[in-house]
Amino acid sequence: MTGRKAKKSIVWLMLVVFIVSTLQFSFDSEAATAGWKQDSKGWWYQFADGSYAKDEWIQGHYLNKKGYWDKKWDGVWKKNKTGWWFQAGSWYPKNQWLKISRKEYYFDAKGYMVTNRWIGQYYVNKDGVYTKKRSSTKPIVTPKTTQLKTPTYPSGSPAAKWGALQVKGTDLCSASGAKVQLKGVSTFGITWSEGVYNINQDAFKTIKGWGGNLIRIAVYTEESGGYCSDGNKATLDATVANAVSYASNLGMYVIIDWHILRDGNPKTHLTEAKQFFADMSYKYSNYDNVLYEICNEPNNERGNVSWADIKSYADTIIPIIRENDDDAVILVGTPNYSQNVDEVAANPVKQKKNVMYSLHFYAATHGDWLRNKLKTARSAGTPVFVTESNICDASGDGWIDSNSAAAWKKLINDNNISFVGWSLCNKNEKAAFIKNSCSKHSGWTDSDLTETGLYYKKWFQGK
Ligand code: IDC
Hints:
Elements: H1 3-32, E1 35-39, E2 42-46, E3 56-58, E4 61-63, E5 75-79, E6 84-88, E7 96-100, E8 103-107, E9 117-119, E10 122-124, E11 130-133, H2 158-162, E12 166-168, E13 171-173, E14 183-187, H3 193-196, H4 201-209, E15 214-220, H5 233-249, E16 253-259, H6 270-283, E17 290-293, H7 307-324, E18 330-332, H8 335-338, E19 355-362, H9 368-379, E20 384-390, H10 402-414, E21 419-424, H11 451-461
Parallel strand pairs: 14-15, 14-21, 15-16, 16-17, 17-18, 18-19, 19-20
Antiparallel strand pairs: 1-2, 3-4, 5-6, 7-8, 9-10, 10-11, 12-13
This protein binds ligand IDC.
């Protein structure tokens, strides 16, 4: 190497070092200066990580495939009765994905933004935003239902005020994060006329008038007329649909309850359960007021059913619901007729988001020992929802224990726990809300109600 060349290389080396260090410097400083940039070719947009926007919209401006602003495609979100679309100049997207403000949206054949649905392997949530991908193009269970449009809840109603509920810690909360207490009634089994009689708009309105904000629909599985025995599925589906629409028209929340009982093990009718929840969660994925109770009361009538068995069932059903609805509240039954909520904490379900666990009490049978399970569960971080209860004994008849009822009420109210009373019927049993002598199917006055019915009415009223 000649002297001159050596000098030259030192100069080059110094230059390289200088460039590298300024590059380093500029990368660091880029972090602080993300935003619009301009060069001789036009405007472009840089992100905090140093990368730049291309083939996407930022603040309504289209950055083309090379990353430069192309004014003629400036875009804006628009909305009509059918839904949202994105108008970019004179064009709007159809049957395609679009990246807007760093989020991926899908637009249907008519150009409307799609919500709560799988587009092939990709899922868009209720805001229309792509959130997740599954490994296969096929759903776990293909729904056989049609997805319904987002309902409009009456203004000021519970569903309009609170929106899509969420679980935070052990609490049920509104979409905006405030603690809420759902309180309501369960229909009697929709498999029977006593149940169906009181499923009508006025009946639910009467409950709402008492301060109730929740209806639970008891879909028995194995009992006579049940979904998995000799019941007519189409009729039962229609009854569920009616009940959901009445509740939704009133802006009340509604639990679709897979009422296992005699079947004991939730896996007894696993195939039907999978299809049922695929169907319901697809149909109602746009409904913020629908909750899913996946097994009423697991029990040992057909051999031991442990929490591990229930958990394994839940870990099968929850992903099926989540494929269609990524945020609905899901209620999971617990061992021994939904009593052992204290067993959950050691081994909760896999997908924990917006999952709560059911506790059922019948005050005359279940005393301090069951209240203690509730306390233990909550202190261990388990969110509990009382999806069924009564002030009488567990047979649904027998006697009423006012002291135990008062203790339950206090514990539940003190902890803002959501609860449901069993049941809205006039059957000749203590658990019924309506006197056997009353044949009205709505608009019940105090003299039409049983001791149980009056108790819950007052409870809803905050008395
Ligand atoms: C009962 C009804 C009763 C009906 C029976 C069918 O009150 O009229 O004949 O179901 O098996 C539960 C169950 C709920 C029971 C209720 C009262 O979830 O289905 O309803 N109960 O026994 N758990 C504890 C009590």
